[in-house]
Amino acid sequence: MKPLEIAVVIESRDDATGMVAAVLRELEGALQAYLACGKTHVIDIATLPLGPADRAALQQALGAGEIEVRINALGASLLRETGFAGIWWVRHEDVEGKLLCELLEVTDVPEIVRAYRADIEAASARLCGLTALP
């Protein structure tokens, strides 16, 4: 079976600023650095001069992955794997739904999802208490 080559074309729109290609290049370098030495990387896309067309083109280029995580703690957080393993689109909102930050994270699992050791130790103690019951 021959490999199938698929070209991705990002169509330009009138209100596009051209930032999409720069973000994709940064992600490419960050993903390579992560593979080489485990270095994570974060791009705060809320601070970039992205117009609506740029944002749509970036979402289209990155696509959607298989994993979505929702966290409700002092506001909502939505973490979505993109179509590229290791690249996550992360949104954090306050309790009123106002966007606090929007990030692209290059990592295996975003840090906010990981359980803290102290929490795991407390869970272990609680579980031991359950198994000690008659």
Task: Describe the fold and architecture.
The protein is α+β, with helices and mostly antiparallel strands. It has a single domain (19-131), classed as 2-Layer Sandwich (Ribosomal Protein S8, Chain: A, domain 1). Helix content is 34%, strand content 22%. It is built from 3 helices and 5 strands. A 5-stranded antiparallel β-sheet has the order 1-5-4-3-2. Helix 1 packs parallel to helix 2 (52-62). The longest helix has 19 residues, at 19-37. The mean pLDDT is 89.
Structural class: alpha+beta
- Strand proportion, as a percent range, falls in 15-25%
Give the termini distance in whole angstroms.
61 Å
Q: Which residues sit in consecutive blocks of at least 5 with pLDDT less than 50?
A: none
What is the rounded Rg?
A: 19 Å
Q: Quickly count the domains.
A: 1
List how many beta strands DSSP finds.
5
Biggest beta sheet attributes: 5 strands, antiparallel
| Average pLDDT figure | 89
Which strand order do you get reading across the main beta sheet? 1-5-4-3-2
Q: Which fold name is given in CATH as the topology?
A: Ribosomal Protein S8, Chain: A, domain 1
**What is the architecture at the second tier of CATH?**
2-Layer Sandwich
Characteristic terms for this protein:
134 residues, alpha+beta, Ribosomal Protein S8, Chain: A, domain 1, HupH_Hydgase_express_prot_C, HupH hydrogenase expression protein
